[in-house]
Design brief:
globular, mainly alpha, about 0% strand
Length: about 160
């Protein structure tokens, strides 16, 4: 089974098409974010890995028991299971804390689309920043992470 990734044109288009189905009043299936907060969270997450938003490490809060980070990264990116619901995120990418606050939905969505395109463009005009949990990642790992992260939050809103 091929793993989905934003480096695959069909997978990227699938995510883009699903993103278009999100509306300001889309109801969440779990969690606490509104649809517009989720859009801001995804945009901040792209900013984080492209070096536009500084964040602190999350590892110690996410991993209460000692587990090698390499295993956690492998499990999250390679095991074909949905990511767990309700996992806490970094304050800097949480719109209810220090993340960007929603403004006008259409403008926030347009900004997310812009960052999504920039993240997937070749050649890149930025250097990857270490992930706060997984650390340094290769291009293919970043594209897999971004697919899974967006898929997780789109499923959160039933799309």
């Amino acid at each position: 089974m091929t793993k989905r990734t934003l480096s695959n044109i069909a997978d990227k288009q699938q995510i883009a098409d699903r993103l278009e189905k999100i509306q300001p009043n889309s109801a969440r299936c779990w969690g606490v974010m509104s649809a517009n907060e989720m859009v801001c969270h995804l945009a901040d997450s792209f900013r984080m890995v492209m070096g536009e938003k500084q964040v602190g490490p999350l590892t110690e809060r996410l991993l209460p028991v000692p587990v090698p980070i390499a295993f956690v990264k492998w499990f999250a990116l390679q095991v074909p299971l949905p990511w767990p619901k309700g996992t806490k995120t970094l304050p800097e990418v949480d719109p209810k804390r220090k993340g960007n606050q929603p403004t006008e939905f259409a403008a926030d969505l347009a900004e997310l689309r812009r960052l999504f395109e920039r993240f997937t463009q070749e050649p890149r005009d930025f250097d990857w920043k270490p992930h706060p949990i997984f650390g340094v990642m290769r291009d293919d790992e970043w594209q897999r992470w971004a697919y899974l992260h967006m898929d997780h939050h789109l499923r959160q809103f039933g799309v």
